[in-house]
């Protein structure tokens, strides 16, 4: 039995995006925005101060925890559906029942940690972006007060863009990481690369749709598409990617012959050929 729900719920990403933005806004309000800000460097200092407040730390952790918990339950639901009637049904139920004590539970904590860290570093990233802007504009002879005002105006857009990138990239990465951790526990080495099938799928991922891949030997989609290599990674593991892995639970779940990423290439294999290499 193959469930259709392996794709991450968009709601998790949009919730995460909104929460990160709210966090920046709220803390920004605590520190206070001075409309008469004279020095652009004061803007940078405030941003860094924002990052060092205890409340920012606290909310960063809470925000990360919420997204990972949502992803955890969302994907558990899909596994439960996969277990229904499938040959590995009992095993899947068993793994789900005790997973918080094992490697899947560990992965949950790793992911919360990683995401909290990324949110915490966001004000510093914005501060270095602002620093670069100040240097460029100063070199062009602009007055400090003017640069400061421009920064205040740019800030909402700057932070919203950053929040959206973090939310999209990290929600997707966490989704893949949890599917992989549960697959590992079940001894499932292969997955089908799925794209979100909308107009925004990057060209190098389009040809990955439907390809069988191994979690421990990820492909380089760019290299396979004769584009500039940006490394090997699994579905959903690169910035702005909404692709996702669909674990191959049973060899009969897919049609044969099938496209397989094997030996650094995409080859067409029969069920028998695949059985020999799998
Ligand atoms: Zn993708």
TrEMBL record:
Domain Phage head morphogenesis span(s) in chain numbering: 139-243
InterPro entries hit by this protein: Phage_head_morphogenesis_dom (IPR006528)
Database matches in Pfam families: Phage_Mu_F
Protein name: Phage protein
Species assigned in the record: Sporomusa ovata
């Amino acid at each position: 039995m193959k469930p259709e729900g392996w794709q991450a719920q968009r709601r998790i990403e949009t919730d995460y995006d909104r929460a990160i933005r709210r966090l920046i806004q709220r803390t920004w309000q605590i520190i206070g925005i001075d409309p008469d800000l004279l020095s652009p460097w004061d803007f940078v200092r405030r941003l860094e101060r924002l990052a060092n407040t205890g409340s920012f730390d606290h909310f960063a952790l809470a925000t990360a925890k919420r997204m990972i918990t949502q992803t955890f339950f969302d994907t558990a639901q899909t596994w439960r559906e996969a277990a229904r009637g499938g040959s590995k049904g009992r095993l899947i139920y068993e793994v789900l029942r005790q997973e918080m004590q094992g490697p899947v539970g560990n992965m949950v904590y790793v992911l919360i940690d990683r995401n909290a860290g990324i949110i915490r570093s966001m004000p510093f990233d914005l501060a270095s972006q602002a620093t670069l802007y100040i240097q460029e504009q100063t070199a062009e002879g602009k007055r400090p007060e003017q640069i400061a005002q421009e920064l205040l105006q740019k800030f909402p857009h700057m932070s919203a863009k950053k929040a959206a990138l973090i939310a999209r990239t990290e929600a997707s990465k966490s989704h893949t990481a949890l599917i992989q951790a549960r697959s590992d526990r079940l001894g499932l080495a292969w997955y089908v690369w799925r794209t979100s099938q909308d107009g925004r799928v990057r060209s190098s991922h389009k040809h990955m749709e439907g390809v069988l891949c191994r979690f421990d030997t990820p492909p380089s989609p760019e290299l396979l598409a004769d584009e500039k290599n940006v490394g090997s990674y699994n579905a959903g593991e690169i910035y702005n990617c909404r692709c996702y892995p669909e674990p191959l639970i049973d060899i009969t779940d897919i049609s044969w012959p099938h496209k397989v990423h094997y030996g650094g290439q995409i080859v067409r294999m029969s069920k028998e050929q695949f059985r020999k290499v799998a």
